[in-house]
Specification:
The structure is a single chain. This protein has 9 helices and 12 strands. The chain has helices spanning 54-61, 83-92, 110-120, 126-139, 156-168, 186-203, 214-220, 238-243, 248-255; strands spanning 3-16, 26-39, 43-47, 68-73, 76-77, 93-96, 174-178, 206-210, 223-228, 231-237, 304-308, 311-314. The chain has 2 domains: 1-212, Rossmann fold (3-Layer(aba) Sandwich); 222-319, no CATH class. It is an alpha/beta fold.
């Protein structure tokens, strides 16, 4: 399978301002030397606890923030793109934001919201604009009558359909979906997930799907990357990850997924608090909560171990 996005040695540090000019400058370590490939035509799931760096990685891939490292898209480093090249990249890659209540301009009708990206990217022909808008409205399950209305007149699920339509109006190859269903009711979540799956097949999309809901990710994604405190600790095909999770953190996450077949004693309870990304632990970042931690875990950062052609884990338990 061809690689569409190739992420190499990606780091992101946010400066922390303490309010004192004489104080030592501190940084929040959001991403720690991330290496990841996103294959063309796949849905790659990115999971982990809140604050582990998932959204930062999604924004980095689209150059909405400026990390260090490399993000190669169709052979070009996105982080080095300037003006016109960056505008071309924006046309091919779009983002679906988490909250449909804040990501749509309340002063614009749905027609204007969908028209704006086309005009920005030089599509001014009225007939072409009408055709594209009507096509995408039909694909996302909305009606032509909805184009005259404003975002506040829609439910959360309908707003997210509008946000998806806006992301797809330029016919991109790549989408970053940043927890697109977490702000919606459970009954509506299923509709949006099914819609994304159908659109991926119809439009041959590649999607980076960010979520903390493992049930959703299992249903939707081809492969899954597990993040902990800025590190990717495991990467595998969806079925393989759920049948045989290797990293202790992945095992704990999957054991916490609700199921009528699971007993309370089957759950793996992690001890201790999530360390601060401002001062992450040395060595393996998970060792402070790991039930299998050894002395070496606090001294040396483990390397990524290749278990099979599609399964990788960052842990000393697998030499």
């Amino acid at each position: 399978m061809q690689t569409l996005v190739d992420i190499k040695n990606l780091n992101m540090y946010y400066p922390i301002f303490t309010g004192s000019w004489s104080a030592k400058k501190e940084y929040l370590h959001a991403l720690n030397n991330i290496n990841l490939e996103i294959k063309k035509g796949e849905i790659l799931g990115l999971v982990g606890e809140s604050g582990c760096g998932k959204s930062t990685l999604g924004k980095s891939v689209l150059k909405l923030i400026n990390p260090s490292g490399e993000i190669n898209f169709e052979g070009k480093n996105v982080l080095e793109l300037k003006s016109r090249e960056l505008k071309d990249f924006r046309k091919k890659s779009q983002m679906i934001f988490q909250n449909p209540y804040s990501s749509l301009d309340p002063r614009m009708t749905i027609y204007k919201i969908l028209r704006e990206p086309l005009v920005v990217h030089g599509i001014r022909d009225k007939k072409e604009i009408e055709t594209r808008i009507h096509e995408i409205i039909e694909l996302t399950g909305l009606s032509v009558e909805d184009l005259k209305r404003y975002p506040h007149e829609f439910s959360g699920g309908q707003r997210q359909r509008i946000a998806i339509a806006r992301a797809l109006i330029l016919k991109p190859d790549f989408l970053v979906a940043d927890e697109p269903v977490s702000a919606l009711d459970v009954s509506i979540q299923a509709q949006i997930i099914t819609l994304l799956k159908d659109l991926k097949e119809k439009l041959n999309l590649t999607i980076l799907f960010i979520s903390h809901d493992l049930g959703v990710v299992k249903y939707l994604c081809d492969r899954i990357a597990v993040m902990y405190l800025g590190d990717i600790v495991e990467l595998a095909e969806s079925q393989s990850l759920f049948e045989k999770p290797l990293h202790p953190y992945t095992q704990a996450l999957i054991s916490a997924v609700p199921s009528i077949r699971k007993k309370e004693q089957d759950k793996i309870k992690l001890e201790g608090e999530l360390p601060s990304p401002k001062n992450p632990p040395k060595g393996c970042r998970f060792h402070t909560r790991c039930p299998f931690a050894k002395e070496v875990c606090s001294q040396k950062e483990p390397e990524i171990i290749k278990i099979s052609d599609s399964h990788y884990v960052r842990c000393i338990l697998y030499p």
